[in-house]
């Protein structure tokens, strides 16, 4: 895992390490509940432990890692409650995005976002997850409300991590569903049909909640058994 970053300005260095750590978590190299080995990671990135800790604190602020007194930083674990809360927030953000786009974005801009769906790499799970997050990052940059954009990006980063924690038997079908939903959602917005866009997102949230909750219930049970040992 030699991912030397090289010599960069302090701020850029910290941001780059954040991105590298997110990739390691999302790819499953760093697993939920795993401790961040600062010495090994700093050596792998070719940096000192200072910038690494700064990046870890940034990820802690985003909810992706947690710190434990005198133990260090650990990759966050998602519970059933976490998944439920994420989708509740997604409901609010979905509706806010629809309102923002219909109020401030012209049809040409919406068509560009719809066309950009084709840029998502659907070849395999992690390439898809990374490409989907990149697509969503480009999308939120076009939002008029900058606070909404920052909150949406934070939420999408959480889902980027959740994707890494799920190992389905049918990844191709899941990828196809996500891309299809995005196309239908943005086509509705191109048509100026906010009600249809809202319904598409509501149905999508309901589907994924039904799919994910049992998976993370199993994770909760396994974690509880581990704590009792």
From TrEMBL:
<dbReference type="InterPro" id="IPR008920">
    <property type="entry name" value="TF_FadR/GntR_C"/>
</dbReference>
<dbReference type="GO" id="GO:0003700">
    <property type="term" value="F:DNA-binding transcription factor activity"/>
</dbReference>
<keyword id="KW-0804">Transcription</keyword>
<dbReference type="GO" id="GO:0003677">
    <property type="term" value="F:DNA binding"/>
</dbReference>
<keyword id="KW-0805">Transcription regulation</keyword>
<dbReference type="Pfam" id="PF00392">
    <property type="entry name" value="GntR"/>
</dbReference>
<protein>
    <submittedName>
        <fullName>GntR family transcriptional regulator</fullName>
    </submittedName>
</protein>
<dbReference type="InterPro" id="IPR036388">
    <property type="entry name" value="WH-like_DNA-bd_sf"/>
</dbReference>
<feature type="domain" description="HTH gntR-type">
    <location>
        <begin position="11"/>
        <end position="78"/>
    </location>
</feature>
<dbReference type="InterPro" id="IPR036390">
    <property type="entry name" value="WH_DNA-bd_sf"/>
</dbReference>
<dbReference type="InterPro" id="IPR000524">
    <property type="entry name" value="Tscrpt_reg_HTH_GntR"/>
</dbReference>
<keyword id="KW-0238">DNA-binding</keyword>
């Amino acid at each position: 895992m030699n991912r030397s970053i090289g010599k960069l300005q302090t701020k850029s260095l910290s941001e780059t390490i954040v991105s590298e750590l997110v990739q390691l978590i999302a790819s499953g190299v760093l697993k939920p509940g795993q401790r961040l080995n600062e010495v090994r990671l700093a050596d792998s990135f070719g940096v000192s432990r200072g910038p690494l800790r700064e990046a870890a604190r940034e990820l802690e602020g985003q909810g992706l890692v947690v710190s434990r007194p005198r133990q260090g930083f650990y990759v966050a674990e998602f519970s059933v409650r976490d998944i439920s809360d994420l989708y509740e927030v997604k409901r609010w953000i979905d509706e806010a995005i629809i309102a923002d786009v219909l109020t401030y974005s012209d049809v040409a801009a919406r068509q560009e976002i719809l066309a950009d769906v084709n840029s998502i790499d659907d070849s395999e799970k992690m390439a898809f997850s990374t490409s989907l997050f990149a697509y969503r990052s480009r999308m939120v940059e076009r939002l008029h409300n900058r606070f909404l954009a920052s909150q949406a990006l934070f939420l999408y980063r959480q889902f980027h991590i959740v994707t890494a924690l799920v190992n389905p038997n049918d990844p191709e079908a899941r990828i196809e569903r996500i891309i299809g939903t995005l196309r239908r959602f943005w086509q509705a917005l191109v048509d100026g049909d906010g009600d249809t866009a809202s319904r598409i997102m509501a149905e999508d949230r309901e589907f994924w909640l039904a799919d994910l909750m049992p998976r993370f219930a199993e994770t909760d049970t396994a974690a509880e058994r581990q704590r009792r040992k």
